[in-house]
Amino acid sequence: MSTPMQSAALPEGSRVPDGLDDVAAALADRLPEHLDALVELASIPSISLAGNDPAHVRRSAEATADLLRGAGLEDVRLLEVDDAHPYVTGSLCHAGEAAPTLLLYAHHDVQPVGTPDRWSSPPFEPTVRDGRLYGRGCSDDKAGVIAHVAAIRAWVDARGEPPVNVKVVIEGEEEIGSPHLPVFLERYGPMLDADVIVIADVGNFKTGWPGLTWSLRGLMDATVTVRCMAQPVHSGMWGGLVPDALTATARLLATLHDDRGDVAVDGFAAGARELTPEERARVEALPPDPDGLRTEARTVEGLHWLGDPDDSPLERIWFTPTITPTGMSVPDLAHASNTLLNEVSTKLSCRMVPGQDPARAFAALRRHLEEHVPWGLEVEVSPGETAPAWVTDPSSAAHEAAAAAFEAGYGHDVAWMGCGGSIPLVGPFAESFGGAAALLIGVEDPASNAHGEDESQDLGDLARTALSEAYLFAELADRAEAVRARGA
Ligand SMILES: [Zn+2]
Question: Are 100 and 478 in contact (CB under 8 A)?
């Protein structure tokens, strides 16, 4: 495959810290090979959502295991939990007891493709255009898998092994909310124990501007079903007298937000806390760049942001509770007959903020939907996946190490970012490892359009993240004592 990364040159902008020339050169040498591996991995349609063939997810787990073996990891195997898509693990722990132990995380499952015609090239035929690799999973999160593989392999090539103990876990059910996480953690948590968790599954602030993420919104899914009859009936014979489930659903959904688009469900945000002055200062240190956000989201002209016009757009994206309908059981246009629909189900995807309790938020949402359904129709609300928000104080020795590594790898200072998305595993893992620091590093950039059509990965940023991660191992080894004092 022809790419901009064929020479053994370092990625544009990056610097080499003292004493790491051999590691940097080893990483650069293999970049074309890592890109080929990403193309191959992203060709596997490992969609974890129910209704898609689970054999593909297993195949991508096996391909991931091969990549880990190829990077020099030992004890590589699939970790199984009943009814869960397989996780993949491996380790390389010869740096000694005084060295920190890292757990590197990414996931190999992907989102469904969305609307096939909106892809410029087929979603599972990864294609390079203008320095970006397009395809489902090319960024979220198979690029994360590759970043870990590249960083480990660079150390193995240059020095035989990394200066830290490395464990890897690549999840197979992240995109469906990690439903088996508690069982997984109980069974395999102890063998994955680490001082630092490195999560390569979030975004950079801008292309070429590395982000270190200190907050994640949580999530809460619900399905609401509105029912008015046992079966659809003729709209000519009954319309005007009998309500239909789609109009009723539209009216019901319209009650979930006020005119500015803020959630208007009593008790939904109970417990949500204000940002601390330090947190707010961190957000305000970044340029809000609303025009840039419009370009990145590709909004139509004239579109108004939701909420108070004086709100910080970044605070809205990272720290505002949301309720969003994301799917509905209605006939598509080709099958729309002249009938009153008797039953409509809508999936609601909600994002949770720090302090908000997903179970309480679900109860408030259910109460609201039951109280507001029009015309005496039946309404049923069932719960889905949940995960609370996660926030950390990014002042640990591990964070200091990460800032130094990414500044060198990108040749740019780091942005201390929030993230509006959710990674359910971060909080429970960090907690079960006794306050291990969690470093959330970026492979995606705002143009990646993860979860959407034409998902893509900037290949320069992938190379810079892999290089920064290789540097991170050295920075953490240099701070071994402070890093090993977890939670201190
Ligand atoms: Zn992801």
Answer: no
